[in-house]
Amino acid sequence: MTKVVTVLGDTIEINGDRIQFDGINEQYKLRVTVIAKTQKQQQTWRQARCQQLALQLTGKWSKGSPQRNLHGFSYQDYLKNNGYSGTMFVKTLRKWEQETKATLWEKFSNLIRRQRGQLINHVEDRFPPVKASYLKALLFGFKDATFQGLSEGFQKTGILHLFSLSGMHLVFFFGLLDKGLRRLRLTAVESYLPLCGCLLVGGIIFGGSSSVLRACLFYFVRRTLKVLRLRLTEMDRFAVVLVMMLVIWPRVLLTTGGQLSLYLAWLILLLPTSGKPSQQLVQGGLLTFLPAPFLMYLFGEWSWTGGLLTLVCVPLFSGVLLPGFLLLLILSLVGMPLEGGGLVVIEEGLTGLGALLQKANFASIITGKPELWVVSFCLVASLLLLQRGKIRALILVCIVFPWLTASLPMDQMIAFVDVGQGDSIVLRQRWNQEVTVIDTGGRLGFAKEAWATGRVKDNAESTLIPFLKGEGIRRIDRLILTHGDSDHLGDVSAVLAHFPVTELVIGEGAQKHPNVARLLATITQKTKVRTVTAGSRLSTNFALEVLAPKKAGQGENEDSLVISARMGQRQFLFTGDLDQAGELALLKRYPKLTVDVLKAGHHGSRTASHPAFIATLQVQEAVLSCGLDNRFGHPHQEVLETLAENQVHCLRTDQMGMIYYRYVMGVIPVQPESVISQD
């Protein structure tokens, strides 16, 4: 597919050789991805931030990936709600020399965007990477891959929003502007139009997010009412701003940022304000408790420190960091030298604070994701209780009730998580009494030059971990690693960073595999390491038993742990990457073995799923865990034909996303369900 777009230069994000930006024309807006082939191309894209650039792009267009796992993120919905028509992965591109159509507003906004892009480049040129990331986030709302890595501690403790440009930040910036206009002895009427123009420019310079839009509109409404000499209550002003936002951005209430920004702004208006420290402390506590059901619903966890830390940190940000960073930017623009102890103190202070908060595991509590009706009930009931001053009951309704309903599921579950090209299976007992995870998935690494190596999130951060948190799982009782391949254990470290693991299970001899050996060197004494062979019984829950390997191996595919499980009246078999020779050997040891649900070996590769193995097991359903459009061509056609010949129902994660089975005796039978409907 070929598209002609104007590049919005200030949206260009560079992460190693991966370049992403927004492209627009008169019909649509696209999120575009380009892979730079050389370091020179990478730098060319960086310079494009402050240029007028139109491109003809040829590549693969898509609507974006839908939600692929329970409690997972839908990139498709994100794009739609933020005004994108889709994404495009570019194969070839060339400059478009013909003049593109643009309205007067588009020409004006593109001019301001180029200035924003130039400022972003200036900050990157004049400041070290860490300081530059904080400056770009606080002054321009530009959060690159470096900032994502630095901000994990702030996110865990619930104060990441302080780095998002919002009311507090814009009050500071426009407050300075207002003082300047008053110094020029301009009346409210005389300064109205210049201020409105600055609001337009500022909305673009600051990134145009939902929180920026809300704050700019609040400021605009307040000044307009002052000029017109009209009086409205704060709630009436909020209503006017909400209507204006819906006109400008109709789907803003469907975005996570819009929901949080507007809900928290409404809560702040609702709560009584006071200058007394004791009253401010109460307000901070209420700002922690009241949004809790909503935050649980969105993220599956709740930061109980968020409101109080916000109360403590707001003076730091508004009184020190914002003025300090603005002064640094001005000094750099006029060419003054920036070397000095103050810069070092700021950088080390923010880095140290982020590292300290990242270790504060107590600050965030995994709660699970409550049902929408539970959240709605809690939010309404909490407001009624707030009006009556019943704080204890409010805490029970906001915290305890949604937490209990989300973290104590009534059903058993076996879930084949869609981790792309890899394996991860979760066996969850009712009420989360016991949780077993078989493999974690992980990316297969390929060497790149230093300039092309960007920050890449662990795959589990967007697949396995959100699912576990959404189910209210706070610990993993048993983590089983079938063998040493990266696509099975590559994300173990990421999982260990979020969940304590009681027992790590590996095959006898697997510790000889380099990947397993490196992993074991990082395991703490809190996690017991257990080596097993055929005949080992792992748990009475799900009747978990190891069927292979019979003897010690090297942690390779042929040494994969083969595990049987039972839920309800159905038998499951998980074979890792076991090859056909291993399958036939398994049949010799267990000639009467039959299976209802088989996790097909090696992601549907022709090296596994021997016809005799499939036929003898009398498989009813086979789950193939493989990545969408994977480079290996899994599942291979021979395997699909073998399954069809044996009348096996084929379930593929690349087509169906997560595949899961639930069981409640007498209520829910053990039948397959999937996240992506095949209707």
TrEMBL record:
<feature type="transmembrane region" description="Helical">
    <location>
        <begin position="238"/>
        <end position="269"/>
    </location>
</feature>
<feature type="transmembrane region" description="Helical">
    <location>
        <begin position="192"/>
        <end position="217"/>
    </location>
</feature>
<feature type="domain" description="Metallo-beta-lactamase">
    <location>
        <begin position="421"/>
        <end position="628"/>
    </location>
</feature>
<dbReference type="InterPro" id="IPR004797">
    <property type="entry name" value="Competence_ComEC/Rec2"/>
</dbReference>
<keyword id="KW-1133">Transmembrane helix</keyword>
<feature type="transmembrane region" description="Helical">
    <location>
        <begin position="158"/>
        <end position="177"/>
    </location>
</feature>
<dbReference type="InterPro" id="IPR036866">
    <property type="entry name" value="RibonucZ/Hydroxyglut_hydro"/>
</dbReference>
<dbReference type="InterPro" id="IPR035681">
    <property type="entry name" value="ComA-like_MBL"/>
</dbReference>
<dbReference type="Pfam" id="PF03772">
    <property type="entry name" value="Competence"/>
</dbReference>
<keyword id="KW-1003">Cell membrane</keyword>
<feature type="transmembrane region" description="Helical">
    <location>
        <begin position="370"/>
        <end position="386"/>
    </location>
</feature>
<feature type="transmembrane region" description="Helical">
    <location>
        <begin position="307"/>
        <end position="334"/>
    </location>
</feature>
<feature type="transmembrane region" description="Helical">
    <location>
        <begin position="281"/>
        <end position="300"/>
    </location>
</feature>
<keyword id="KW-0472">Membrane</keyword>
<dbReference type="InterPro" id="IPR052159">
    <property type="entry name" value="Competence_DNA_uptake"/>
</dbReference>
<dbReference type="InterPro" id="IPR001279">
    <property type="entry name" value="Metallo-B-lactamas"/>
</dbReference>
<protein>
    <submittedName>
        <fullName>Competence protein ComEC</fullName>
    </submittedName>
</protein>
<feature type="transmembrane region" description="Helical">
    <location>
        <begin position="393"/>
        <end position="410"/>
    </location>
</feature>
<dbReference type="InterPro" id="IPR004477">
    <property type="entry name" value="ComEC_N"/>
</dbReference>
<keyword id="KW-0812">Transmembrane</keyword>
<dbReference type="Pfam" id="PF00753">
    <property type="entry name" value="Lactamase_B"/>
</dbReference>
